[in-house]
Design goal:
With 218 residues, this protein is an all-alpha fold. The protein has a domain of 61 residues: post-AAA+ oligomerization domain-like (Orthogonal Bundle), CATH 1.10.3710. Helix content is 56%, strand content 0%. It contains ten helices and no strands. Helix 3 packs antiparallel against helix 4. It starts with a helix and ends in a 5-residue tail after the last helix. The relative contact order is 0.09.
Length: 218
């Protein structure tokens, strides 16, 4: 089904085709067939993210090109990559967020078409990075626990008070910049919210945390 006249004009405007002297009847022949432009927007965005998550840079680049060609704001594409970098790559490769932010900044500073190079570079990098969603899981578990225990009092040694300051153990005053100390309230006590997979760079974090837990008194 061909797009409605209004949607067709919107598409032509967003794609930059409506220029002075342009033959509208010829331009309308170039409008893509789509049942629903809004749905097509979200379908392409979904396919874009899922292709990067599946580590397929070729498909991801294809869907990005489709989105840009359909008139999507390149900043929308860059924002999706920033979210993806934290949600799907995460601590397997913390530099992924830096790459996504750099692409976003490039679109702001340079604009299209030149910033397509930066967007393309970021897509390839994100799709080609190891994947790890432990950050997403930790965020969800933390928010759930916070909702369940929102009336629990903060431990006295962590409070911003004279008593709290007197009881607080400043880690930098101890060997290795760490000291055994309880940070959770008694009612919550030592919940495991961050469940690492050890993928990519995260294995460094896992190793460090394991070494600290081995020092904790039984």
């Amino acid at each position: 089904m061909r797009a409605s006249p209004v949607n067709a004009l919107v598409w032509l405007y967003q794609s930059g085709s409506l220029t002075e002297g342009a033959d509208l009847s010829e331009l309308l022949k170039e409008v893509p067939v789509a049942k629903n432009f809004e749905q097509e927007h979200y379908d392409l965005a979904s396919a874009f993210i899922k292709s990067m998550r599946g580590s397929d840079p070729d498909a991801a680049l294809y869907y990005m090109a489709r989105m840009i060609d359909a008139g999507d704001d390149p900043l929308f594409v860059a924002r999706r990559m920033i979210i993806f970098a934290a949600e799907d790559v995460g601590l397997a490769n913390p530099f992924a967020t830096v790459m996504a932010m750099a692409a976003y900044d490039a679109v702001h500073a340079v604009g299209l078409p030149e910033a397509m190079l930066n967007l393309t570079e970021a897509v390839i990098y994100l799709a080609g990075s190891r994947k790890n969603n432990s950050v997403l899981g930790a965020m969800r578990r933390a928010r759930d626990l916070a909702q369940q225990t929102k009336n629990v009092d903060t431990p006295i040694q962590l409070k911003n008070s004279r008593t709290g300051q007197a009881l607080y153990k400043y880690p930098h005053n101890f060997p290795g910049n760490w000291v055994a100390q309880e940070y959770f309230p008694d009612e919550v006590h030592d919940r495991a919210l961050y469940l690492p997979t050890g993928a990519g760079y995260e294995h460094v974090i896992v190793g460090y945390l394991k070494s600290l837990r081995a020092k904790k008194p039984e």
